[in-house]
Design a protein that fits this description.
Blueprint lengths: L1 E2 L10 E2 L1 H4 L14 H24 E2 L2 E2 L1 H20 L8 H13 L5 H20 L8 E2 L2 E2 L14 H28 L10 H4 L1 H22 L1
Antiparallel strand pairs: 1-2, 3-4, 5-6
Helix pairs in contact: 2-3, 2-5, 3-5, 6-8
């Protein structure tokens, strides 16, 4: 997660690395003359790249985390919607360049936001299908069972900031028990009890305790942000 970045419309907010690294660079390359048609082609290209990146992220060795892949796919879809509709709260780096390009295409008058939303709604089913391209029809690859994702129709209606808070909370809730279990596995006494003194005395346990404490501090800072 990236916190306290310049150029974020909402103060004191952390951006998921998934959103910060989203494949949107080519959206600034929309050609003049038939901008909306070319914009559509560039969005489809971005979504295809993003789908492949997410697929590679969750396919490791001989396993594939289908659930997390689909969760990220839905989150990316909603964030692309915010970007196109002009409701994205990220306004730094390539996100700002994309927003400037979209303003050139749709204008900045009082009707621009509604025009952008209509354009997204007119094309969003095709956009969703493009996001599915990396897994569509794959079925099974070796030992990896690949299932097509179902769109969460309500997710894009949730404000972006609220979605990210939910995403952060889900990650924290899943990561903390795993890290604590790892800590206990290394630092437990033979009687099965956790001896906190070992965090100060034994090298491997001390290193694990320090890493866990640093992670807790980081998560607290993110939450306080």
């Amino acid at each position: 997660w990236y916190c306290n970045l310049n150029g974020v419309q909402e103060q004191d907010i952390c951006i998921p690395d998934r959103r910060a690294q989203m494949s949107i660079n080519n959206l600034v390359n929309v050609k003049s003359g038939n901008e909306k048609n070319d914009l559509k082609e560039q969005v489809l290209l971005s979504l295809n790249t993003e789908s492949q990146l997410l697929f590679n992220k969750w396919k490791k060795h001989n396993s594939f985390n289908n659930e997390e892949f689909c969760n990220d796919l839905n989150r990316d879809y909603a964030d692309f919607g915010n970007l196109i509709k002009g409701t994205d709260i990220v306004a730094h780096g390539n996100s700002k360049e994309v927003e400037d390009k979209l303003k050139q295409i749709f204008g900045e008058n009082e009707n621009a936001k509604s025009d952008r939303e209509k354009w997204w709604n007119d094309n969003k089913e095709e956009f969703w299908n493009k996001l599915l391209s990396s897994v569509k029809g794959k079925g099974k690859e070796g030992n990896v069972e690949i299932k097509e994702c179902t769109k969460d129709a309500t997710l894009e209606e949730i404000p972006q900031f609220q979605r990210w808070v939910q995403e952060w909370g889900k990650e924290y809730g899943e990561e903390r028990p795993k890290k604590l279990q790892n800590l206990e596995g290394i630092c437990k006494e033979k009687n099965g009890l956790l001896n906190e003194n070992r965090c100060n005395n034994e090298h491997e346990c001390k290193r694990t305790c320090t890493a866990y404490e640093s992670w807790i501090i980081l998560k607290k800072e993110q939450w306080d942000t």
